[in-house]
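**User:**
Make up any protein.

**Assistant:**
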Amino acid sequence: LSPGAKMGCFTFIKVMMILFNLAIFLSGGTLLGVGIWVKVDGQSFVNIFGTLSSSILQVVNVSYVLIVIGSILLVIGFLGCYGAQKESKCLLMMFFSVVLIIFIAEVAVAVVALVYTSLAESLLTAVVTPILKEKYGVDKIFTHIWNATMTEVHCCGLNNYTDFNDSVWYETHGTFPAPCCDMLQPCNITAFPPLAHPDLCGCLLQGCFKQILEEIRTNAGVAGGVAAGIAALEIAAMAVAMYLYCRLDEK
């Protein structure tokens, strides 16, 4: 290519890099704002948008997830947009490094989730179960989200009903949460059947983790397509950042 064509190509890619990362920056700001909104006034958010059912996000604090993702997108968008605008090799390399770290982390999480499902379940159990015991029935938003999850997914607790043993809810009410049981008959810890007799007492014994995992497997094609699309965007972003970085040496 002639020097003019090369310069035109460089300028085009630079502008696209700026626009793309500006969109990421604005998206990150939006998610961060929504996350703060959910944290400060979660009930109004749930009332307006409803509950995110059948999603793994329902077993964690949604506000923290949004804040973390929004903050990461803000950093990535700023580094990419400002680095391309100012033609800063330092910022472009930082952008490349951050995206690469995120890409490697996503691949690692995917491998653990697909190959080591039992390990993922153990890690999730260690984190979520104590929170479930302490916050269910105490935190209104957390309780509302879990109730919607257990009702729509037809499950009880993360692993099974025993997640509510010694919980604040059971110590206060002496029963399992209503979504776990058939309200036509009582269901308490003394009358609760062993796992070998799921037809007694009218209670759900299966945990939400396995139910959600089954739904994810059912929609594996869609999930895989979304994951592949995100990975492709990340690879393209790294390639563009490295192209601009190398072209700056020639300039």
Residues 51-60, 183-200 have pLDDT under 50 and may be disordered. The two ends are 15 Å apart (CA to CA). The helical segments are 3-49, 62-86, 89-115, 117-135, 140-153, 168-173, 208-218, 220-250.
